[in-house]
Amino acid sequence: METLVATETHCPYCALQCGMALSPAGASVTVAPRDFPANRGGLCQKGWTSAALLDSPARLTTPLIRDRHGELRPASWDTALDLIADKITAIIAEHGPDGMAVFGGGGLTNEKAYLLGKFARVALGTSQIDYNGRFCMSSAAAGSLRAFGLDRGMPFPITDLDDADAVLLVGANPAETMPPFLSHLRKATDAAGLIVVDPRRTPTAEQAALHLAPAPGTDMVLALGILHAVVADGHLAHDYIASRTTGFDEVWRIAAAWWPERAERVTGVSATDQRAAARILARSRNAYVLTARGAEQHATGVDTVNAWINVALALGLPGRAGSGWGCLTGQGNGQGGREHGQKADQLPGYRKIDDPAARAHVAGVWGVDPDSLPGPGRSAYELLDALGTDGGPHGLLVFGSNVTVSAPNSGRVADRLSTLDLLVVADLVLSETGRAADVVLPVTQWAEEDGTLTNLEGRVLLRRKAISPPDGVRTDLEVISALAARLGQPPARFPIDAETVFDELRAASAGGAADYAGVSYDRLRAGEALYWPVPSVDHPGTPHMFLDEFAHPDGRARFVPVDVRGPAEPPDEEYPLYATTGRVLQHYQSGAQTRLVDELTAAVPAVYVEVHPDTAERAGLANGDDAAVVSRRGTVRAAVRCVSSMRPDVVFLPFHFPGDGRANLVTNPALDPVSRMPEFKVCAVRLEVAGT
Ligand SMILES: Nc1nc2c(c(=O)[nH]1)N[C@H]1C(S)=C(S)[C@@H](COP(=O)(O)OP(=O)(O)OC[C@H]3O[C@@H](n4cnc5c(=O)[nH]c(N)nc54)[C@H](O)[C@@H]3O)O[C@H]1N2
Ligand SMILES: Nc1nc2c(c(=O)[nH]1)N[C@H]1C(S)=C(S)[C@@H](COP(=O)(O)OP(=O)(O)OC[C@H]3O[C@@H](n4cnc5c(=O)[nH]c(N)nc54)[C@H](O)[C@@H]3O)O[C@H]1N2
Ligand code: SF4
Ligand SMILES: [Mo]
User: Would the keyword 4Fe-4S turn up in this protein's UniProt record (predicted)?
Assistant: First the structure.
């Protein structure tokens, strides 16, 4: 039912999940910011314009099926769903359950992520499910698990940062990726305590007292240099290390060899600045180390995260009130999306799929035999890479990701998608991946449905329905449920009501690391601030973790010894430059949504490459020229944007654009051995004048 009063909800985009109030306005809504701790009445340009897609003509309102001539044509829901179910049945008959694969997204609500994981394991019986969070949070999650025994992006409320005197931001550009977040860093900024580690002089770095600009992929060396300075300059937190950690000696054996002058030669960051960073953090009462994708999206991402956590531990920050370590989660439900079973190796509640007790618990909730649950499947890139190959999946269902644009080595990924017997994409708009699909299913969006998300601080939020969806679209839950029914599942096993699904998720997560048993829609409706774990309905939740002990059995945090490894593909004579990739303020991810919003495309219409003017000149290019950025895997065509603060050895490409402007045509799918994170943030390229 439509309401006349404003609906209090949250933004459809990033993990900050800014509070919004939506008032109905025709077929759309009017967006107003609301006072919520994460954003305090602020919104970024994407949030302000987010309603534009609700009544956009670009919106999908009917299923599409590819016809004999290769065109996508409107079809009825029954025709589309019957076709999908028939093809799935045929693929499984020929190749077995692992012949079908599922790819999910960290933007999906907890309910969707949960039901999708259950659908894959129970209705399809496949092990082949993973999601785009593998490209996002996986290195931070694995590093955090190793160090603390548990992964909650920020193990403290975001408002704790308000009292920080010093914050070390590593590979994060929140001035563009979460603008209202900067309000939490005001005290640190005013106290000359903001330190930013980024190869580029970003709008975030502009605000910092100290900007360290290492060559991409050399963070680990920088962290070792700073750790060395912490020890050598007498900043080590001896008592904390003795009482709350293990493993320092082994880490020091490695860091002892990385005195700042030596680290300077590898990273390009002066020894003086490394020592200054150590000093600023050590002198501050309340200090934090926060990492984001710049540090994490590497084939060495997990070790790099641990290298930065080691710095935080040496200073005695994690698990101390008013100080800490955290990572900035990315997607709207980047945190919850990794807890409820759409990851290849996980079951709901952050349980491991190869743990017999976890399997028994979840199978019990699902009413199936534990032995019927598949084991772990392939990680995201490995899954995409295996599509259509012998032993790989031949059918793929995509919910909430646009892999044609956002997966690394995207030329290869597009090629693999084209070999499938069945590609189904559920989306609100016709994404680039949707354009390659056999069947496209139109789904509702944020303001048209209820659901929960878990924001970057581990707080569970209720997104509420503010308006009715247009005719012809269904919710993801309805789509999953209808497919499950056609595959012979009892209807009650795949409910379509978000609250009902959530109640089942609570039971499935009960007793797990990410325990939601005590979170209810009623408590969320009443405005309770619930941070997981919330093991029972009378439990207040856990805003602060680790204050008494860490989650390892002995209660101590681990210094994890990490040895230096450079980028998988260092620059050489043929490909002399580092290419790195990332985000701009106006566009979101693959751009499938934001490229359809006029105000945002007017501001940033097309891909560009940031280059130092001298580097451009050496390649025969000037500002505005059409450049070819060439790697061993492909070529991106982009307009040159000369930026005098760029390192001369680095070029930067935003990844939000399609076609031959896809940054991922050049990126390297080298994977981290632990997290299976691809190396989005560094590969070797050369710059040329674009051919016509
Ligand atoms: N506008 C906008 N906001 C977003 C998103 C979006 O697409 N657009 N996406 C959301 C999501 S899912 C995510 S994951 C977050 C990501 O948020 P961020 O991590 O802040 O974003 P990125 O631009 O990917 O990377 C941050 C910085 O890492 C730097 N970097 C590159 N290589 C290295 C390196 O080797 N070391 C270090 N230290 N830094 C390096 C880049 O120059 C870049 O400025 O943003 C969220 N918010
Ligand atoms: N080169 C490079 N590549 C990167 C990165 C990088 O820094 N550099 N970052 C990586 C990171 S951190 C991330 S998170 C990924 C993100 O990249 P993608 O996974 O491609 O993310 P989106 O563009 O948000 O794609 C979401 C798609 O799902 C649709 N959608 C939105 N909400 C829903 C919903 O509720 N249900 C359904 N069914 N569909 C929905 C959107 O319209 C869109 O088409 O990109 C990764 N790729
Ligand atoms: S910062 Fe993130 S959550 Fe807030 S308005 Fe912008 S995109 Fe939305
Ligand atoms: Mo992300």
Answer: yes
Q: Which atom of ligand 2 is nearest to the CA of 667?
A: 1
- What pLDDT is stored for residue 3 in this prediction? 47
Distance CA 592, CA 224 (A): 39
CA 186 from centre of chain: 25
Structural Rg of the chain based on CA atoms: 24
Q: Which residue type, as a one-letter code, is found at position 478?
A: E
In a 3-state reduction of DSSP, which class is residue 481? Answer: helix
Below-70 pLDDT ranges, the chain: 1-4
- For residue 607, report the distance from its CA to the centre of ligand 2, in Å: 17
Question: Which pLDDT value is given to residue 4?
Answer: 62
Is the Cα dihedral 605, 608, 614, 620 positive or negative?
negative
The whole-angstrom separation of Cα 661 and Cα 641 is 14
Which three-class secondary structure state does DSSP give residue 131? strand
What are the residues whose beta carbons fall under 8 Å from the beta carbon of 390, sequence distance 6 or more?
none
3-state helix, strand, coil in the chain (%, to 5): 35, 20, 45
Does residue 228 line the site of ligand 1, with CB under 6 A? no
Residue 157 Cα to chain centre, angstroms: 19
Is 295's C-beta closer than 6 angstroms to any atom of ligand 1?
Answer: yes
pLDDT (0 to 100) of residue 570: 96
CA of 10 relative to ligand 3 center, distance in Å: 9
Counting from 1 in the atom list of ligand 1, the atom nearest the Cα of 334 is: 12
| 19-35 residue pLDDT tens | 999 999 988 999 999 99
φ, ψ of residue 531 to 5 degrees: the values are -105, 130
Backbone φ and ψ for 145, nearest 5 degrees, come out as -60, -45
Name the residue with tokens 């680990």: 220
Domains assigned to the chain: 1-57+451-474 (3.30.200.210), 64-135+333-443+475-513 (3.40.50.740), 139-328 (3.40.228.10), 577-689 (2.40.40.20)
Q: How many CB atoms lie within 10 A of CB 415?
A: 12
**What pLDDT shows up at residue 78?**
98
267 lines ligand 1 (CB under 6 A): no
Atom of ligand 3 nearest to the CA of 50: 8
| Cα(313)–Cα(408) distance, integer angstroms | 33
CA distance 640 to 646: 13
Amino acid residing at 79:
T
Helix (H, G, I), strand (E, B) or coil at 82: helix
Tens digit of pLDDT for each residue in 124-171? 999 999 999 999 999 999 999 999 999 999 999 999 999 999 999 999
Q: Which amino acid is at 685?
A: V
Element (H, E) at 386: helix 380-386
**Residue 138 Cα to ligand 1 middle (Å):** 14
Q: Which helix (H) or strand (E) holds 153?
A: none
DSSP letters spanning 161-221: GGG-SEEEEES--HHHH-GGGGGGGHHHHHTT-EEEE-SS--HHHHT-SEEE-PPTT-HHH
Token code pair at residue 2: 């439509």
Residue 1: per-residue pLDDT:
47
